[in-house]
Design a protein that fits this description.
Layout: H1 5-10, E1 12-14, H2 26-32, H3 46-57, E2 59-61, E3 66-67, E4 78-84, E5 93-98, E6 103-109, H4 113-119, H5 124-128, E7 131-137, H6 139-146, H7 149-172, E8 174-175, H8 184-191, E9 198-207
Antiparallel strand pairs: 1-6, 2-3, 4-5, 4-7, 5-6, 7-9, 8-9
The protein binds flavin mononucleotide (FMN).
Residues 34-35, 37, 123, 177-181 line the site of flavin mononucleotide.
């Protein structure tokens, strides 16, 4: 956690810089990618969480503001929340990923993993994982340009984000599973999403 008063008031957490190499090839990560629903009883590090968030939506071209996952018209309709329980150096709480700044901002207090699991039809991996990423979409950002086709585009984009998280996780021995079965309104309440933000995927994260 940084120390200035402004950051303390807004409860901002600076994320680590991303690494750009790993011990396994992209081919091996694809071959060995699996949905993982049970994890070691170990905390994640902030470095690991930072890397996974970068893989999901990090800025990869500063000049043009382009991100790690493709987006129709580069309109970027996705917002990323993290429900944190056991991440070293990060109090249990709900955070939102501030993409351009590579920061997390705290948006809700306390360990919400059990509530998130209930919202996900009691899938136990969500309660057990040290943290879960929740991917939300603001459809209007894309429908303003693409009309009805936006829905299709936004859903494709969530798939790309999830795959990046799976592959980055595989390279770091962090397992995940694409959770699509949940009650939308309950998830929105748990993370404190705005009315325009629609949850589309939960990705629990844990060491394997
Ligand atoms: C859109 C989507 C939704 C999914 N929802 C769930 C889910 O709610 N719970 C779950 O345990 N797995 C879920 N999965 C994971 C699939 O069960 C898994 O990908 C499939 O069994 C194939 O296994 P693999 O990913 O290890 O190759 C989902 C996968 C996708 C692509």
């Amino acid at each position: 956690m940084r120390g200035t008063s402004e950051q303390q008031t807004r409860k901002i957490v600076a994320l680590s810089r991303q690494g750009e190499s790993s011990k396994i090839s992209v081919e091996k990560a694809i071959k060995e990618r699996r949905s993982v629903r049970s994890y070691k009883h170990e905390s994640l590090t902030l470095q690991e969480l930072s890397q996974l968030l970068w893989a999901a939506q990090g800025i990869t071209d500063e000049k043009r503001g382009l991100r790690a996952s493709p987006s129709a018209g580069a309109l970027y309709p996705l917002e990323i929340y993290v429900v944190v329980g056991q991440v070293e150096g990060l109090p249990a709480a709900v955070y939102k990923y501030v993409i351009g700044k590579n920061e997390l901002i705290k948006v809700g207090d306390g360990d919400k993993r059990a509530r998130l699991s209930s919202a996900a039809l009691s899938q136990s991996c969500v309660a057990a994982a040290p943290a879960s990423i929740v991917v939300c979409a603001v459809y209007e950002r894309t429908s303003r340009k693409y009309g009805q086709r936006a829905q299709r585009y936004v859903h494709m984009e969530v798939g790309a984000v999830a795959e990046n998280i799976y592959l980055q996780g595989r390279a770091m021995q962090v397992g995940t599973v694409f959770i699509g079965a949940f009650d939308d309104e309950s998830v929105k309440k748990v993370i404190g999403a705005s009315p325009a933000e629609n949850p589309l995927a939960i990705l629990p994260l844990g060491k394997i």
